[in-house]
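Structure first, sequence second, as always.
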């Protein structure tokens, strides 16, 4: 597992999300500018409200992506981790996880990596665990294989 490559994959995904949100916002601005008030005022108001809601959603997606990019920029690859906490890359018997604020997943050459938060049920179960530890998880158990 190359943590630098995994962080770059998340960064690329978030940068694409920002670009897509910016594009959608510009299209929505064009749509709003082209919307003219007709004799059917309700139709105009409904269209304006739909544009406002779509704008709000795209702005939120863009903001969340920027927050994720800021978090990624603060990650220190030189830190050595012994126990699971924020910023760790964790390999387990059920998959690989990046512990932090991201909830997306990326595909790498080694397989998928899922972002999880410490507040998530899995994040809570993994908190403070070390390689080799086995913990109950759902109907079975989970083994921590590596912490990077």
């Amino acid at each position: 597992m190359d943590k630098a490559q995994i962080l770059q994959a998340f960064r690329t995904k978030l940068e694409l999300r920002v670009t897509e949100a910016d594009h959608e916002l510009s299209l929505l601005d064009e749509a709003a500018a082209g919307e003219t008030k007709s004799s059917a005022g309700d139709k105009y108001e409904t269209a304006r409200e739909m544009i406002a809601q779509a704008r709000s959603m795209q702005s939120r997606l863009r903001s969340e992506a920027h927050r994720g990019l800021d978090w990624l920029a603060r990650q220190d690859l030189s830190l050595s981790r012994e126990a699971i906490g924020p910023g760790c890359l964790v390999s387990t018997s059920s998959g690989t996880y990046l512990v932090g604020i991201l909830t997306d997943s990326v595909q790498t050459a080694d397989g998928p990596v899922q972002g999880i938060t410490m507040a998530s049920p899995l994040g809570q179960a993994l908190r403070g665990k070390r390689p080799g530890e086995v913990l109950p998880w759902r109907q079975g158990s989970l083994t921590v294989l590596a912490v990077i």
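Margin note: The CA atoms of residues 135 and 142 lie 5 Å apart.
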